[in-house]
Amino acid sequence: MNQLRERINNELRKRVYSKTNGKCIYCAEAITLESMHVDHLYPFSKGGSNDIHNLMPSCRYCNLHKSDKLVAPMIIRKEVIKEVEVIREKLIDCRNCIILAKSVEVMNESMHSMNKHISNYVELLHKAEERYGKLITMWRNHESRTRWG
Questions:
Q1: What is the CATH number of the domain that holds 35?
Q2: Structural domain total, the chain
Q3: In whole angstroms, what is the distance from residue 24 CA to residue 138 CA?
Q4: What is the pLDDT of residues 14-55, one digit of tens each?
């Protein structure tokens, strides 16, 4: 099945280039119209055509690396992988925020409990001052007289 390859004209090259806004279909690297390789998604050597739906913009490296291999219908590009990594990082950030929020919640509960205890101690201190205030005052007066003289 040795068919002659038709030359891809400039107008068709521009249409192929505009499919991905100047990026390689496989790695998402920016390419110029001049440096772009026009790749046959379904290889020409295996019966693929020069139809616009079969032509994809590619960088030199990806096109030569792909050669005449068939690619999966869903092409995983670097930008998709990068997006997944960003989403994963955001998920980790969210988990960290949840952990932090729970920690803050526990701290707030602890502080609330501590405030209750402090209030109880302050109340006990006031009661003690009421009960023993006169004794403490008398003792302090006694101490100051005996100490100084």
A1: 1.10.30.50
A2: 1
A3: 92
A4: 999 998 889 998 888 999 999 999 999 888 888 888 899 889
Number of neighbouring beta carbons within 10 Å of residue 136: 12
Distances (CA, A) of 1 to 7, 17, 39, 66, 70: 18, 28, 19, 20, 17
CB 43 within 8 A of CB 79: no
- In sequence order, the β-bridge partners of residue 40 are 55
Report pTM. Answer: 0.47
Alpha carbon 83 to its chain centroid, in Å, reads 9
**How far is the first Cα of the chain from the last one, in angstroms, to the nearest whole number?**
124
- Examine residue 94 and state whether it is found in any structural domain, yes or no: no
Strand partners, 55: 40
Asked if residue 148 belongs to a domain, the reply is no
Segment 120-144, tens digit of pLDDT: 877 887 787 777 767 767 777 766 6
Which among 49, 47, 46 is positioned nearest to 6, based on CA atoms? 49
Q: What is the bridge-based pairing of β-strands 37-40 and 55-58?
A: antiparallel
Domain range holding 45?
10-75
Q: Which residues contact 29 (CB under 8 A, 6 or more apart)?
A: 23, 59, 78
